Amino acid sequence: MPHSDADSPDAQHQAVRQLFERIPFNAYLGIELDEVSRERVVMHLPMKHELIGNFFHGILHGGVIASLLDVVGGAMAMIGAFEKHQHLSAEERALRLSRLGTIDLRVDYLRPGRGERFSASATLLRSGNKVAVVRSELLNEHGVLIAVGTGTYLCG
């Protein structure tokens, strides 16, 4: 089956960007998308008062850390799903991608979330026909590793 322009990496990455921007929770937290490629997805989050989890020390809330790792992981899983489902029609592929969701997320909190800007990146470990596994990391603006995550996503 011939591929359309919708199959191009640029079109896939634009679709991920558009979906990301339509999720109100991402905007509420202040997550911004920096990079979308076949190899990785990168996002960042500026620290703001509303995201503090420990007011004594002014550190990022653990739930925000988990959310950011989940969002970046889901975006990476979507890139993997695009690759796996290229043989499908655009309509069938869109239907499958609309079901994308988190099955499991493990977060290892390595250090307190101190910083002014947090960057999350994700890489694909495995992309199957129905499930993708993604590894993600969260660092502060000084490159200090705050947390790592491994997510399993339904993508088909």
Automatic annotation (TrEMBL):
Domain of life: Bacteria
Any Pfam family the entry gives: 4HBT
SUPFAM superfamilies noted in UniProt: Thioesterase/thiol ester dehydrase-isomerase
Recorded catalytic activity of this chain's protein: a medium-chain fatty acyl-CoA + H2O = a medium-chain fatty acid + CoA + H(+); a fatty acyl-CoA + H2O = a fatty acid + CoA + H(+); a long-chain fatty acyl-CoA + H2O = a long-chain fatty acid + CoA + H(+)
Occurrences of domain Thioesterase (ranges): 57-146
Broad EC category: hydrolase
Family of the protein in this entry: Belongs to the YigI thioesterase family.
Protein name in the entry: Medium/long-chain acyl-CoA thioesterase YigI
The species this protein was found in: Stutzerimonas marianensis
Organism taxonomic ancestry: Bacteria, Pseudomonadati, Pseudomonadota, Gammaproteobacteria, Pseudomonadales
